[in-house]
Amino acid sequence: MRYLVLSDIHANMSGLEAALKASEGRWDKVVCLGDVVGYGPDPNEVVDKIRALSAITIRGNHDKAGSGLEDASDFNPVARAAAIWTHEVLRPDNLEYLMNLPTGPIELDGMSLVHGALRDEDEYVFTPAQALDGLLEAPSPITFFGHTHLQGGFVLRRDGNAVDPLRLKVPADSQFAEIPLEPDTTYLFNPGSVGQPRDGDPRAGFAIADLGGKKVEFWRVKYDIAAVQDRMFRAGLPEPLIMRIAFGR
Ligand code: ZN
User: How many other C-beta atoms can be found within 10 angstroms of the C-beta atom of residue 77?
Assistant: First the structure.
């Protein structure tokens, strides 16, 4: 089975469409690690698409805030303004869909899916030290997580004594890099963010988990960033959010 692993789409329909187009024919099923909405200008279009794809989706913190399940009081002012706008424009059926998204972790086909961390859906995993508990406790050899918007992740080999960050870079002139899955190894993989990357590469990030082929592909695809910025501007979304998608920071 080959899974298209999406995360942190953040209401960016152009990024999502580019990801789907580039990966066409290369996967069997879609999973989504949350933050379907928030920040971006296309919440209804993106939720409609995720529903149409029958993606196995868990909720992210921005889905809770955008749907009204939680208030955005712990968000910074810019994120809060976007969450309030998102809540206002979402159709009732899409609000209900987001409100009813399950909390991670979900176990699927030898993989665990979480938004932030196994123990806490809102926890950020940035460093090997922060990744260690999850790698030791993981019920599956592969955990996919999102939330940080940083493509890559962490590896723990059974005979090793340290957590290694995944050394990964998708060159500017190609669309993906491949990581082979090895035995006796536990992986914490972040597919990257489709709609608001923060690792310095503005291209839409996602992954394809090819379980039969024992490999994971990490993808970066170009999309029309200026068109998204234009829609954000017209929606009155905060300027820092409009600027950052061009830099991938
Ligand atoms: Zn996010």
Answer: 10
**What's the whole-number average pLDDT of the chain?**
96
pLDDT recorded at residue 72? 87
**Residue 174 forms part of a structural domain:** yes
Task: List, in order, residues 6 or more apart from 198 with CB less than 8 Å away.
Answer: 148, 149, 150, 244, 248, 249
**Does the residue 61 lie in any domain?**
yes
Gap from CA of 192 to ligand 1 centroid (Å): 10
CATH number at residue 174: 3.60.21.10
Output the CA 173–ligand 1 centroid distance in Å. 26
Q: Model's pTM, two decimal places? A: 0.97
pLDDT of residue 158: 86
In this structure, is residue 107 part of a structural domain? yes
Residue for token pair 């999406």: 6
Ligand 1: centre distance to CA 52 (Å)? 21
Question: What parts of the chain have a pLDDT lower than 50?
Answer: none
Predicted pLDDT of residue 131 = 94
Torsion of CA 107, 114, 125, 3, to 10 degrees: 80
| DSSP designation for 102 | P
